[in-house]
Amino acid sequence: MVQNIQIGVVYMQRETRKKYGLMLGLLGVICFSLTLPSTSIAVEYFGTTVVGLGRTVVAAFLVALVFIVRKEKLPSLRQFKSLIIVAIGAVLGFPLLTSWAMKSLPVSHGAVEVALLPLATTAFAMFRAGEIPSLKFWISSIIGSTAVIIYALHLGFGQLQFADLALLTAVLILGLSYAEGGRLAKELGSWQVIAWAIMIGAPFFIIPVGLNITTEMFHAPIKAWVSFIYLAVVSQFLSYVAWYSGMAIGGIASVSQIQYLQPFLMILFSTVFLDESITLFTLVISVIVVFSVIIGKNAPVSKKGAALEKN
After folding, report:
1. What is the Cα–Cα distance from 125 to 108, expressed in whole angstroms?
2. pLDDT for 308
């Protein structure tokens, strides 16, 4: 009787942690969903380099202040190597490539291609974190991916441009960054992962950002400044805190399923802030994708070591 009660308590604690991880992941995705709309606005006035790399330079001041107050210890050499992977994807590749792509592509276009991010994250998670998604998980992933592909074809995005290639490359390297960051967050801490990645990248960005600042930029409208500040403070730092915390608590593969909501949240925000239209077809696809998320977030995920032990 006592043993059954103990098992029940452990199960409830595990389920509570999983739900908490999913909630944090959802918060992160909502914050990320404003990234492309904000980038589309800011890049028009500040340019690719300032928007893509400048956000990290600004975020570094916030991170440095937090580090000083908390007296954070330096990561180990092994952790530092993983942080370089996170920095390449989260603070260099994705911001710079998406800033360049958003100069010529509408947000809805970028949102569809960013929807492939969950598959990239899951694929890298299997290699970097030793997670083995179940068949149910893969079926839900296929449903969600197929839905966004149909959506892309319906809108006529079949022909790839250089901007498309930039976005797809950004998705791949960010997927690796997500998987590596989620794994590292379990030992280093959730917000510390992106914080140290920012501190690693920022010193290398100061000179190129400084060389691309012009006097005209200081006369940019308030919406451009708000967009840039959002990218620097929320998109580049606070959203990652929620996202990596969610993956560390709820599991990389399970929480990554929530990313299927991201393209449709982007489209919703682009409708609100950029006056882009939303169609009935978009709503139908959204329902299908949400359904796949509901299935995927409850799918079991095992570890490679556990699987070997069973064999």
Report:
1. 27
2. 38
**Position 84, amino acid:** I
State how far the alpha carbon of 150 is from the alpha carbons of 121, 139, 162, 281, in Å: 21, 16, 21, 10
6 pLDDT above the threshold of 60: no
Q: What is the CA radius of gyration of the chain?
A: 20
Residue range 77-93, pLDDT digits in tens: 999 999 999 999 999 99
Identify the CA nearest to 41 among candidates 211, 174, 228.
228
Q: What's residue 299's pLDDT? A: 67
71 sits in the region (left: phi over 0; alpha: psi -120 to 50; else beta) called left
Could you list the beta-strand ranges (E) of the chain.
131-133, 301-303
For 79, the enclosing helix (H) or strand (E) is: helix 77-87
pLDDT at 309: 44
* Mean pLDDT, range 22-36, rounded to an integer: 92
Are the C-beta atoms of 301 and 251 separated by less than 8 Å? yes
Measure the CA dihedral 108/112/117/119, to 10°. Answer: 170
The answer to whether the beta carbons of residues 48 and 96 sit under 8 Å apart is yes
- Report the run of H or E that residue 310 belongs to, with start and end: helix 304-310
Q: Which residues pair with 131 in a beta bridge?
A: 303
